[in-house]
Amino acid sequence: MNLIGDLAALRIPLPQPGDVTPEELYPDALEEAEQAREDYAFALEAQWDELQEDPLLIALGNARAAREAADHEIRRLLAYGREFHGDRPTSSILSPKPAG
What we know:
By secondary structure, the chain is mostly helical. 70% of the residues lie in helices and 0% in strands. It has helices at 3-11, 26-51, 55-85, 91-94. Helix 1 (3-11) packs across helix 2 (26-51). The radius of gyration is 18 Å and the shape is extended.
């Protein structure tokens, strides 16, 4: 088992045939995702070497930071929308999707 490779695969899933439109761009999208996996694995390994911490904990911290950045971006976009476009119903956009 290659922990760093597994974490990279979880973080950056490969596109499946039919996921990419137009279909002739699938090989390029696959190559780009594979390169992104390699880059992520390299960066994660470098963090592991530097911090001497469990790669899973590092990956979880990275995911948490990404989630916080996304939450911050959503708040900025909502504030922009309220300021320049008035109150619009956003509950359907922000409500959680049903599981299953």
